[in-house]
Every structure is written in C-alpha cells, then in structure tokens.
Amino acid sequence: MNYDRDFIYGELEELGLYAQIRLADSLQPLPEGTFIGEYKFEDKEELKNTIYTEVSELFNKHGVQARLFIAVSEKATIGVEDITAKKS
Predict the structure, then answer these.
(1) At the N or C end, where does the chain have fewer CB atoms within 10 A?
(2) CA dist., res. 51 & res. 43, Å (int)
(3) In DSSP terms, which residues pair with 22 in a beta bridge?
C-alpha cells in the first residue's frame, strides 16, 4: 500500500464515498477498496464524471496509485456477505 489508508478513507468520506453500508441496524464493511455513496444528480454521466474527477484529483494529490471503477445506478440492490470456503 502506497498511502495512509485511514487518511484517504476519511478524504473519500468528505466526498460522500463510504467503505461501509448500513444493512438493517448495523454498518457492514464493504470489500477493501470499495466505496458507496448516494448523490442527487439528474444526469448520471455527469455524476460519474464528477466522482471520477474528484477521486482522481485526491489520489494524484496524495500519490495514490489505483485503478478506478465507477458505477452509477438509479436504483441498486445491494447485499454483503462473507463467504468462507468449507473444507471437504
């Protein structure tokens, strides 16, 4: 890892991107390097480009090397569950 994880995660939260999701009455962690946010944008392409620009600028400013994958959805169904392989 080439950055201060907690600092970057805090900066992403300031952009409205979170590494946890509320399911039922608890916060559940998302997979490492995965973030989610809710935004009020009519134009989904503009939202994607805005998030890309803000995150790219943040990463470049702090020397973070990463691949960005940004998905924008009108309505998403999300489930989080840990899967543990069972030995046979």
Answers:
(1) C
(2) 12
(3) 27
Burial label, 55 (beta-carbon count in 10 A; 0-12, 13-18, 19+) = buried
Tens digit of each residue's pLDDT (9 = 90 or more) over 26-58: 888 888 889 999 888 889 999 999 999 999 999
What is the predicted pLDDT for the residue at 80?
Answer: 67
CA–CA distance, 79 with 59 (Å, rounded to integer): 28
Q: What are the distances in angstroms from CA 23 to CA 27, 45, 64?
A: 6, 27, 30
Give how far Cα 1 sits from Cα of 7, 11, 66, 74, Å. Answer: 13, 17, 10, 33
Q: Can you give the three-state secondary structure of 38-83, one letter per residue?
A: CCCCCCHHHHHHHHHHHHHHHHHHCCCCCCCCCCCCCCCCCCCCCC
Whether the Cβ atoms of residue 80 and residue 21 lie closer than 8 Å to each other: yes
